[in-house]
Each structure stands twice: as structure tokens, then as C-alpha cells.
Write a structure and sequence with these properties.
Length: 366
């Protein structure tokens, strides 16, 4: 048994290679591993060889993560696709057998949908990434209540039988399912730091709340801007992690610090807003790293939408796109998109429109 640290480096980020940190951790000391590994594959290799070498290196890390995981623990590994001269390999397909080879048990393959992204020319544009969830044993933690989402038909009742008149669905909400739509942390997202590929905090919160209890230990070998640390702290979990790049390590520390740096700067708009809300100070005194305008906007003036909003928006959009495609195939007029050019265009909807679009649904106030 590897005894490693006498005391675990709780609520700290190790600046350096995660393998070095892992080698010092004892067996079965963390409750959850949640991470998104780097996959900017080495340029010094020919791409295919680079992929195989990368997967070999990742196998070593995953074996170590599995070793440090408690018997009741879970691992969530988030990956996208590897693209090489027009070919595309979904990386979860390659990671799945690696996780299985460590004796881990698959629980879910979660699809994380993105509404926006690059438009491909020679294949369908990529609009999802995946999160593989594996557990170490059959005795694992899964807390459904803290992560329930609203039922679609909240007040539906049994209409016959001995439960007649009673609610037919759980009033606390439903299981969120394995298709997630947290908005990507880009551009004007309030969590955006200088890091190019951050986890949205709510996505990490869903994982942490579902698979750990208060004071448990969450491990992220690739901390990046420190999202896993920030969310663990918010929900009274402990964290341990590593980050090899000094500039991201400092961003993570500043996010965890929750205070302005010596230049009155914050790593992102969210930390700035949290600070001025807590202290009552004037927002104009401070800036954040990604700020372009003169003054940061206060949260009460900002539109922040929950995951359900984005799901509804995507559903409406997909229904619209498929109806437009069906209309094209049938030589009919396309239905009019009520959000044409990003503006609500409800008045223009023609109720005689020959299409499959449920306009009532499209008109849900977004
Ligand atoms: C995909 S990003 C993770 C982003 C993170 N989930 C967040 O929310 O900010 C992967 C990170 O792993 C770091 N990294 C790459 N190789 C590493 C290694 N051997 N040890 C520790 N960190 C490493 C990279 O610098 C990068 O910040």
C-alpha cells in the first residue's frame, strides 16, 4: 500500500504534473474524481501515433485515479473528439475500455450538448462532448434529490385507479437524464477566465451533489482554472488537485481567494459580482481579466438563464430546423422562425402555416 502524505493536501492545488501528486496520495482516499484531461495532442508526432501515445499516458493517470478512489467512489471523465485531417475519433470510445480495464463499472455516458460552435464543411458540425461516469464498486453514492429538475407536467394526476386524483409524478422534480445542456464557458459567460476550456460551475455542481456528501474529498488531476475547487468549496466538500501551467494555477488560486488582487482585479466577472454583492462596494472600483468595457455590469442587470431555459431553446430550435427541412423536402413554404435574426418575431407568424411546427411551443417566452 502506498502511504504517501501523512496528511492529505486538502483544499490545495499542486503546481506541477498530476502524476507526481497522484504518486504521493494513499490508496482509497478520495470520494470522487471529476476531470477533463488535456487533449491538445503532441505536435512532434504524426497524429495517429500521438493519439496512441496520449492514450497510453492517460491509462497511467486513470489507473492512479482508480487506485486513490474509495470503494464507494465515482469517476467522471469528460472528453470531446480527436480530429485529424478530416477524420474524427470520439475520444470516449477510446477511453471507455481504458476505464473498464481498471476494473471500474460504467454507469452513464452523459452527452453534453453545445448549441454553438464551428460550422464544419465536410461533415456534420460537432455539437456535443461526453462525460463517462464509472464507479469503483456496486456500492456507490447517488443522491437524486439535490439534483432533481422540474417535471414537464408538474400537476399531472392519476385519472383512475386507487391513486385517482393524486399527483402522478414526483412533486420534487425528475431525474435530469443523461443529456445535459450547460452553456459553454465562452465569450460573455460570467465565469469566463483566461482559460480556454473551463467547466461550467453548474455542471460540476450536479456531479458533486449527486455523488458526494458534505466534507467528502473531490479530486481533479487537471484543475485548469480551478472550477472543481471552486464548486467543492461552495458545497462544503474538500478538494485536491494539480495544474501544470503556472498562469492557470494562479487563476485558480484567485478564484478560490474570492478577493481582489493587488490591482483590484478579479479572474472573472462572477468573482467580481460575488465580492461586491457580499461587501456592498461599488462595482466601478474593480475590473476583471476579460473585461472589455469601462464598467462591469451588476448581476441584477444581467440575464442568467438556467439549464432548463437552454434545453427549451434548443428543443424549439431543433423542432423549427426539422420542420423547415421537411417543408423543403415537400416543396412547401418554410415556417417562419419567431426568433428570426435573434429577435422575437411573433406577429409575423401566419396561423395558416402548413407545417409540423407547434407554434404554441415556439412562442414560449424565452
Ligand atoms: C481541459 S483543461 C481543464 C480545465 C478545467 N476543467 C477548468 O474548469 O478550468 C486541462 C488542464 O490540464 C492541465 N495539464 C495538462 N497536463 C497536465 C499535467 N500533466 N498535470 C497537471 N495538469 C496538466 C492544462 O494546463 C489544462 O489547464
Amino acid at each position: 500500500m502506498n502511504t504517501g502524505f501523512l496528511n492529505l493536501p486538502l483544499n490545495q492545488i499542486f503546481l506541477g504534473d498530476c502524476l507526481k501528486l497522484l504518486k504521493q496520495l494513499p490508496d482509497e482516499c478520495v470520494n470522487l474524481v471529476v476531470s477533463s484531461p488535456p487533449y491538445n495532442l503532441g505536435k512532434e508526432y504524426e497524429a495517429k501515433k500521438a493519439l496512441e501515445k496520449y492514450l497510453e499516458e492517460q491509462t497511467v493517470i486513470i489507473k492512479e485515479c482508480s487506485r486513490v478512489l474509495k470503494k464507494t467512489g465515482s469517476i467522471f471523465w469528460q472528453v470531446g473528439a480527436f480530429s485529424n485531417q478530416g477524420s474524427l475519433i470520439p475520444l470516449d470510445i477510446r477511453f471507455f475500455p481504458i476505464l473498464e480495464s481498471c476494473g471500474l463499472i460504467p454507469r452513464n455516458r452523459i452527452i453534453w450538448i453545445r448549441q454553438h460552435g464551428l460550422h464544419a464543411q465536410n461533415k456534420f458540425s460537432c455539437r456535443h462532448e461526453t462525460i463517462l461516469w464509472f464507479t469503483k464498486s456496486n456500492e456507490y453514492v447517488f443522491n437524486l434529490d439535490p439534483i432533481r429538475v422540474p417535471q414537464k407536467y408538474q400537476n399531472k394526476k392519476h385519472y383512475k385507479g386507487n391513486k385517482k386524483g393524486e399527483l402522478s409524478c414526483n412533486p420534487k422534480g425528475k431525474n435530469p437524464g443523461d443529456i445535459w445542456l450547460f452553456r459553454n464557458v465562452k465569450h460573455n459567460h460570467e465565469e469566463q477566465t483566461i482559460h480556454p476550456c473551463q467547466f461550467p460551475e453548474d455542471l460540476v455542481a450536479r456531479i458533486i451533489l449527486a455523488t458526494t456528501q458534505t466534507n467528502d474529498i473531490v479530486f481533479d488531476p487537471y484543475m485548469g482554472s480551478g472550477t472543481v475547487g471552486v464548486v467543492s468549496k461552495n458545497y462544503e466538500r474538500n478538494f485536491i488537485g494539480a495544474e501544470i501551467e503556472e498562469k492557470y494555477y494562479h487563476i485558480a488560486l484567485r478564484r478560490l481567494e474570492e478577493k481582489p488582487d493587488k490591482n483590484n482585479n478579479f479572474p472573472n466577472l462572477k468573482s467580481l459580482r460575488n465580492y461586491v454583492e457580499k461587501t456592498g462596494e461599488n462595482i466601478e472600483k474593480y475590473r476583471f481579466d476579460m473585461q472589455t468595457g469601462n464598467k462591469a455590469t451588476e448581476r441584477k442587470k444581467a440575464k442568467i438563464f438556467p439549464e432548463e431555459y437552454h434545453k427549451q431553446e434548443l428543443e424549439n430550435r431543433l423542432i423549427y430546423e426539422e420542420s423547415a427541412f421537411s417543408a423543403d423536402l415537400r416543396g412547401e413554404d418554410r415556417p417562419i422562425d419567431i426568433n428570426l435574426n435573434g429577435r422575437s418575431n411573433k406577429k409575423k407568424v401566419n396561423s395558416d402555416q402548413p407545417s409540423n411546427v407547434d407554434f404554441k411551443q415556439l412562442e414560449i417566452e424565452l
